[in-house]
Prior knowledge:
Blueprint: E1 9-12, H1 14-20, E2 29-31, E3 44-46, H2 51-70, H3 72-79, H4 85-91, E4 93-96, H5 99-105, E5 112-115, E6 120-123, H6 132-146, H7 161-172
Parallel strand pairs: 1-5, 3-4, 4-6
Antiparallel strand pairs: 2-3, 5-6
Bound molecules: zinc ion.
Amino acid sequence: MSALLLAACAALGVSQAAANTPSGTENDLSVVRAVSGGAFFSPRSSSRLGSGLTRKLSTGFQVALEHLEEHPGCRSLFHGLSHEARESLSRVVYVPASGRQEQRFCSRGVSAFTEVGSSVTYVCRGFSRLAPAKAAMTLIHEALHHAGLPENPNHADMLNSAEINSLVSQSCSL
Ligand SMILES: [Zn+2]
């Protein structure tokens, strides 16, 4: 069980995540322009995210883009899912986890979570305390779920969260 402590993400079941998706998310977006990135390659986030999470999101996003650029194996993780890495990353919308979600999902090292295939990633308060490389790894992990990568700790044919982290860490040198 100790491996779960390293998990950066909990992928939710479809019905569970759908029930927790706040309405009006799409109307609550503001484009956060990363330091050196253009609009297309900047993180899209909710204005409710708060300054600490927004800053770490921008930093982690930039580090993620740099490592995707430098490491072909990192981009290959997305190509294997028939997606383009930067495009997948730029399509994800980051929203803050609700108080209830913080209690339910943001524990034991989980700093973000999503639903496989969803373009919405929920960010836990703890994300703001991650080192830039760990933040970047988390964003790539979540973007892989957006691109269709499943996760299941109880299924032998699927990776669990820690295994996905390990894959990203090795492939992207993060
Ligand atoms: Zn995950």
